[in-house]
Amino acid sequence: MMFRIFIIIISLFFISESLFAQKFRHRKEKKVAAYSKKVQSVFPDPFEYDLKGWHFDPALTYEITRPFPKKISGDEGETTFKPRGKIRGYLGIGRYRIVEYWYLVNYVDYGLAYKWMAGRELYEGAGGSGENKFNDHHLTGNLNFNNIKDLQNGFLQNSLGLNVDYKFLGAGSSPFIAQLHYKIGYGYKPNDKWLIIPSLEFPLMSFYPGIPNPMLQYFSSRYLPVIFSVRLMRIKKKTEDCPPVGNPAMPSLQEMQDMMQQENQR
Question: Helices (H) and strands (E) in the chain — how many of each?
C-alpha cells in the first residue's frame, strides 16, 4: 500500500514538473516572440534589398553662438557685441551603400550639397553702434559612416563623417572649410521604396582653417553651424535571379528528356 502511494506521489511530482516546464517554456517563447516583434528591424535587409542607391537631403542651417553679449575694451572704450544666427537652406544629393561585415557600421554614404550659412553681429560702444552681417554660399562634399540601432517601429542612426566646403560666394578670408562632424537621427520606413531619416548634424572639430575649434570666426564672434535635415533614402527590393516559369528561353521538361536520350544514343 505504501509503495503504491509512493509511486502515485512520484508520478504526480513528475507530471507537475512537466506541466510547469511546458508553461515556463511557453511563456519564454511568447516573451522572445514579442520582443522580436517589438524590435523588428525596418532598415533594409542586405539579402532582400539592393545594397546601394540614391539619397536626397533637404535641410535647414542655423548658426549657434553664445547667448550672452561679449565686451571688448579698446582705445576708444568698451564695445559690446551680440552675435545672432539665421536660418538658411541646404540641399544635398548622393549615394549610399549598405555594408554587411563592418564593425559598428551599417552603411556608408557620400554626396554633394549646396549649403547657405548666415548670421549677424550687433555692436555698440563709444565709437558707435551698428550691425555686421555674413551670408556664405558653399558647395560641400561629405562622407559619412552610419550605425543603426533598431527601435520599435524605427531605428536610431548615429553617424560620424567628414565635410569639405568651398565658399563660392560670401565674406571671410578662407574659401575652404574642413571639419569632422557628428549626426544623430531617427529613421522609419513608410513603405518598401523609401526610408525617411530626420537628423541633427553639428561639427566636432575643424581641420581647416582653425584647429581644433569647430566654431567658425566671423567678425568678433564665433558661430557653430548646425544642420537640421530630412534624408530621403530610395530603397529597392532585389529582383529574383531565377527565370520565370514558362520562360521561352528555357527548354521544357520533354525537350530536356529528348536531349538526354539523344545524348545517350551517341
Answer: 2, 11
Residues of the chain with pLDDT under 50: 1-3, 5-6, 13-14, 16-17, 20-21, 23-24, 28, 31-36
For residues 133 and 118, the answer to whether their CB atoms sit within 8 Å is yes
Q: How many CA atoms lie within 13 A of 174 on its CB side?
A: 12
Distance, CA of 55 to CA of 95 (rounded, Å): 6
Residue 257 included in any domain: no
> What pTM, to 2 d.p., does this model score?
0.76
22-64 per-position pLDDT tens digit: 544 555 455 444 444 556 789 999 889 999 999 999 999 999 9
Domain span holding position 121: 52-234
Residue with cell 563660392: 168
Give the residues across from 81 on adjacent strands: 70, 123
| Cβ atoms of residues 84 and 65 within 8 Å | yes
80, three cell numbers: 559690446
Give the residue from 119, 113, 42, 66 showing the smallest Cα distance to 88. Answer: 119
**What type of residue sits at position 144?**
N
> CATH no. for residue 93?
2.40.160
Alpha carbons 211 and 63: distance in angstroms, whole number: 19
